[in-house]
Target: Succinyl-CoA:(R)-citramalate CoA-transferase
Amino acid sequence: MDREGALAGLKVIELGQLIAGPFCGQLLGDMGADVVKVEAPGGGDPMRNWGSGEHKVWWDVIARNKRSVTADLRRAEGQDLVRKLVAEADIVIENFRPGKLESWGLGPEQLLEGNPRLIIVRMSGYGQTGPYASRPGFGGVAEAMGGWRAIVGEPDRPPSRMGVSIGDTLGATFGCMGVLAALHARTRTGRGQIIDVALYECVLQVMESQIAEYDVSGLVRQRSGSILPGIAPSNVYPCRDGEYMIAANADGIFARLCDTMGQPELARDPRFADHVSRGRHQSDLDGIVSAWTGQFLIAELEEKMIDNAIPAGRVYSPADIVSDPHIAARQAVVSVPHAVHGSIKMQNCVPVLSDTPSRIRRSAPTRPGQHNAEIYTELGIDASDLRTLEAGGVI
Model:
């Protein structure tokens, strides 16, 4: 098996299902770790059937670089299989409701007793402690509690959501960061540790200075649609054939935009002469910029932005992403072999490492337990015992 990557040689056992835990597993697998996905016998992870469109292919992204085994965690035999897997692992990822692993005899204390070097990353809506710990908490709920939903959308409408599961993916990303930090600590101490990831806290972490603003001045940010209040001009502006993003809020860049627009006097106008003034007159300025951009096709406007070094860009659809020459040159989208579709395009691994590059080495498992024989045999379980476990519904 190809072992290259920064985390080559590390084994990850991925428990749980749906988004947060599996996305953390995807990130670690992309970096070269051997990720063993534990699924329930039968249908496996519900993610296999998630996604939009006729063909559900989200699984093919989130389960890449993984091997799949099955084990019924509700049964003693299945729990024993997981203990055997964990005994030889470096990292365990789980995103069950707090207390569930403990009820199966698979709590961190038991797992660390058998493998003191083990790193366990636990993901839940509210964390492992506190009065809300036992509540079910999906990513959307975390986005609400962390303050995200309150500021997303138009000011005269109810809160909106992003078109992706940002609460879960933030939790997974911070969980991955915790794993990397714990691996470094283990090189000094020789010990593993437990990483407690609360999804709402991960959302809260990216809310910039909102808590400090409220504490110091009582400010509560409101929903503001497509703008950030006080940051202007920075918006999506109309063209004759669509929309175009321009971010010209810095003084020097704004002056270049004014020259490009043929209105250099705007840069000296007291309403727009500096960052604070532009923020106070944001609506007026956006109206002026919109009236100008509306004269052009997107391609015409983009040429002007590039020629005058103004940060700007098209609002990409998937069709734009897969056909863009810069994205192609950096291989930010790659084609991965697929048993049904021949190949599937998907986002590549990030970030780009020069000496130990991450990459997609393995397509997602096509069925739950696809690697049962391969992995369980590695643990010393013979074929006869595997047949017995399978007949009994344990795997």
Observations:
- The mean pLDDT is 96.
